[in-house]
Structure to design on (177 residues):
């Protein structure tokens, strides 16, 4: 059975959606970069191994990434799944996992890479917004697209209401990917 490791920084609702989808794979571990990432408690309660690699004690991005790689590789995963993992990863890290590192992003890439995607989509006046699962390459929020879901923008949408509908779609497409 294929093994995956999921990386989170916070809430972990996408990780939870993957767990609840009961896919034919083994979630070898959920790793957070913050000891208080809420998703870690959920994973523990499900009996999934968890680990924390705190970015703060590391002087450089490369030092943190090296420690994170050691932690991930101890589980020998076939696929590394970024699920709301809010750290930019070094080129060395990304190349180490080339072809087996995926991310979910709350926009229809290549539109709106980066942060505050829902506010920016509203400001741009797009009528169709959505989310994307893509392979990770050294350029942030780029890389081959695996699956996308479109979410129509409503005239009375706020960033929050739009984010909530996009998140529902994220929870569908990440397990599918
Ligand atoms: C999601 O919107 C995801 O697309 C983005 O960060 C958010 C994480 O949410 N990369 P959660 O932690 O999965 O609930």
């Amino acid at each position: 059975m294929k093994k995956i490791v999921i990386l989170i920084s916070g809430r972990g609702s996408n990780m939870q959606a993957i767990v609840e989808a009961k896919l034919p794979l083994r979630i070898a571990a959920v790793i957070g970069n913050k000891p208080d990432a809420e998703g870690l408690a959920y994973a523990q309660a499900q009996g999934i191994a968890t680990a924390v690699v705190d970015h703060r004690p590391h002087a450089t991005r490369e030092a943190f990434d090296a420690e994170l790689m050691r932690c991930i590789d101890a589980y020998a995963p076939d696929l590394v799944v970024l699920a709301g993992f809010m750290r930019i990863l070094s080129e060395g890290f990304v190349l180490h996992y080339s072809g087996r590192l995926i991310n979910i992003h709350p926009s229809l890439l290549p539109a709106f890479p980066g942060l505050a995607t829902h506010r920016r989509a509203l400001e741009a006046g797009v009528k169709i917004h959505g989310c994307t699962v893509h392979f990770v390459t050294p350029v942030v929020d780029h890389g081959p697209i695996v699956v996308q879901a479109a979410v129509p923008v409503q005239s009375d949408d706020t960033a929050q209401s739009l984010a909530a509908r996009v998140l529902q779609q994220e929870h569908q497409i990440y397990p599918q990917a």
